[in-house]
Design a protein that fits this description.
The protein is an alpha/beta fold. The protein has 2 domains: about 100 residues, Glutaredoxin (3-Layer(aba) Sandwich), CATH 3.40.30; about 100 residues, Glutaredoxin (3-Layer(aba) Sandwich). Helix content is about 45%, strand content about 20%. The protein has 9 helices and 9 strands. The strands form 2 sheets. A 5-stranded mixed beta sheet has the order 1-3-2-4-5, sandwiched between helices. Strands 7-6-8-9 form a 4-stranded mixed beta sheet. Helix 2 packs parallel to helix 4. The chain is elongated, with a radius of gyration of 21 Å.
């Protein structure tokens, strides 16, 4: 994925609006900035859910002043347009740790996260990962799915992905399914709302949910 070079304010505002953004304020004359940029480039290959960008601090001085960037390199972390953390100076270890925490991955947690995901998936025979819960769906797709599930009379449990970023991002990779809601039966992914609708139309939903 690499590090996106920011050229103007509009591009910057669009970039930091992503859910997880690591933004380097740099200058070509500062060798330390190259060290941070190299580390960010490596991390970008490991973290598809994190955006990495570089802002030329002197050329875009208004942005730098707005974030009180007084020296380079400075790294500022954004979530949905809001600055949530920063690193002043060269600290690759801290950069790596903060990036991993933002996307819900701790240093040695890949195996632990997978174990947790497996446990959640198998918490109930029918398990739904969605935005909100069965009583308060927080998106139209989730609301429609819950309506269908309630009509089947099948017992199921839900997990609110908005309550845990590590589960929200980790499950996409674990199941190779990029969207929500996700429905699992006996620990196996059935699919999202479109698949459930298709099974319903074909008269196969009840059988599928009963496993």
């Amino acid at each position: 994925m690499g590090v996106e070079k920011i050229g103007n304010t509009d591009q910057y505002m669009k970039a930091i609006s992503d859910p997880n953004v690591c933004c380097l304020f740099s200058a070509d004359w500062a060798e330390q900035c190259g060290q941070i940029k190299d580390a960010m480039s490596t991390l970008s290959d490991q973290m598809p859910h994190m955006k990495f960008v570089e802002v030329p601090a002197e050329e875009l001085s208004d942005i730098s002043l707005n974030h009180q960037v007084e020296a380079v390199p400075t790294v500022i972390f954004f979530q949905n347009g809001k600055a949530v953390d920063r690193i002043d100076g060269v600290d690759v270890a801290s950069l790596t740790l903060k990036c991993k925490k933002m996307v819900g991955v701790v240093e040695d947690s890949k195996g632990k996260l997978e174990e947790r995901l497996k446990a959640l998936i198998n918490k109930s025979k029918v398990m739904i990962f969605m935005k909100g819960d069965r009583n308060t769906p927080r998106c139209g797709f989730s609301k429609t799915l819950i309506g269908i599930m309630n009509d089947t009379g099948v017992t199921y449990e839900t997990f609110d992905i908005l309550s845990d970023e590590s589960v929200r991002q980790g499950l996409k990779t674990y199941s190779d399914w990029p969207t929500y809601p996700q429905v699992y039966v006996n620990g196996e992914l059935i699919g999202g709302l479109d698949i459930i609708k298709e099974l319903l139309q074909n008269g196969e939903l009840q059988t599928t949910l009963n496993g």
